[in-house]
Amino acid sequence: WPRTSGRTDGTLTIGHVDVRDLAREHGTPLFVLDEHDVRARMRDYVTAFAGSDVHYAGKAFLCREIVRWLHDEGLGLDVASGGELAVALSVGFPPERITMHGNNKSVAELTRALEVGVGRIVVDSYEEIARLGHLAERHGKRPKVMIRVTTGVEAHTHEFIATAHDDQKFGLSLSAGAAAEAVRRILALPSLELVGLHSHIGSQIVDTAGFEVAARRLAGLLVQIKDEHGVVLPELDLGGGYGIAYVEDDEAPDVKEIADGLREIVTKVCEDAGLPVPRLTVEPGRAIVGPGGVTLYEVGTVKDVEGLRTYVSVDGGMSDNVRTALYGADYTVTLASRASTAEPMLSRVVGKHCESGDIVVRDCFLPSDLAPGDLLAVAATGAYCRSLASNYNYLPKPAVVAVADGAARVIVRGETEDDLLRGQL
Ligand code: LLP
């Protein structure tokens, strides 16, 4: 639960705002973001990674207000598309503090990035190197580029496996020599300035050993580049992926430990080889915005499926949180609008979509006096819920409100039926 959440007379409050007031005023489903929580996590990263750069991964959840918070708290931004870039630019975020990612950036996206002068473009293929080199030359620019390196550390949720073969779409393989070949190709293009290497091993990772293996391999490649080309690259971007707690007993890695561990490894590899220590960047998304977010739903039906469990239907579902259906994700849910001393019953919280896989919380215990009109709150939905939301079954996407110090304000308006019909011929 967000840092400023609590209970008053049995009712959940977030940022000292009563969730019943939020539901009354803004409707449900509703995304509630604890501003203090999110900003505190931004600062935690900036502090732990002092001397390095923290670029928030906008894919986790991006809107103009988040961009303002990033700016206030001194973070940079990682964007994965021209759309994310547009959100940042629309509120004047400094382009030089933006890194652009993507395994298939369009010519239009690359051109925009060149025009506005984004700080780093992370290239992901030979084609992109040639394409960007050509575009840069045509526009009279010399962008700073990094190479996305596949380090062979295959990260899964809660574990990692080191593999020789990297069977996924991102990056250029270290072991197969594709990353080294990319270095050669970029160095041969006068219109591109190669400044460093990038790696992102996966997401929702709690075992930090995988990050360290990747960092060591990336630093090793810096040494190899120095030996082969006499070129010292000044930067390493170690990506994001730091896990958060979704349910009780989940563990989340400590940001200070991550920072110290990564710095130590990179420093050691570089110093041993007589190289200057590169400037590091990390790209946390979920770890910054995830824990501060809560989704509020209203219960519509409570159906007892004899001998099995109780199905609790809420007014949203896989259109506002697809993570349960897509990744088998676990969430914590609670009755938010009142206290209850009723016996707990084995429940499944489901949405209102036309699919049996439309599950919000697979297994949970809710009080047996649960009734239509009750509000449920699902924790840790700040990341990859609103950003992955869809209009499946023509449901409007819910609003996002930021709460702080007893006040709530809409930071993303909820969609209306007009929004749903817009663009229809
Ligand atoms: N940097 C790069 C290059 C990335 O691809 C990602 C995530 C991040 C940073 C941030 O990762 P984070 O710190 O948020 O784990 N939809 C999935 C997560 C996809 C992550 C994609 N890339 C989910 O809901 O779990």
UniProtKB/TrEMBL annotation:
Its EC number is 4.1.1.20. Residues 37-290 form the Orn/DAP/Arg decarboxylase 2 N-terminal domain. Pyridoxal 5'-phosphate binds at G241, E283, P284, G285, R286, Y384. It catalyses: meso-2,6-diaminopimelate + H(+) = L-lysine + CO2. Residues 292-382 form the Orn/DAP/Arg decarboxylase 2 C-terminal domain. CDD domains: PLPDE_III_DapDC. Pathway: Amino-acid biosynthesis; L-lysine biosynthesis via DAP pathway; L-lysine from DL-2,6-diaminopimelate: step 1/1. PROSITE patterns: ODR_DC_2_1, ODR_DC_2_2. Pfam families: Orn_Arg_deC_N (PF02784), Orn_DAP_Arg_deC (PF00278). GO terms for molecular function: diaminopimelate decarboxylase activity. The modification N6-(pyridoxal phosphate)lysine is found at K59. InterPro entries: Ala_racemase/Decarboxylase_C (IPR009006), DAP_deCOOHase_LysA (IPR002986), De-COase2_C (IPR022643), De-COase2_CS (IPR022657), De-COase2_N (IPR022644), De-COase2_pyr-phos_BS (IPR022653), Orn/DAP/Arg_de-COase (IPR000183), PLP-binding_barrel (IPR029066). Substrate binds at R286, R323, Y327, E355, Y384. Its cofactor is pyridoxal 5'-phosphate. Keywords: Amino-acid biosynthesis, Decarboxylase, Lyase, Lysine biosynthesis, Pyridoxal phosphate. Belongs to the Orn/Lys/Arg decarboxylase class-II family. LysA subfamily. Specifically catalyzes the decarboxylation of meso-diaminopimelate (meso-DAP) to L-lysine. Homodimer. This is Diaminopimelate decarboxylase. The gene is lysA.
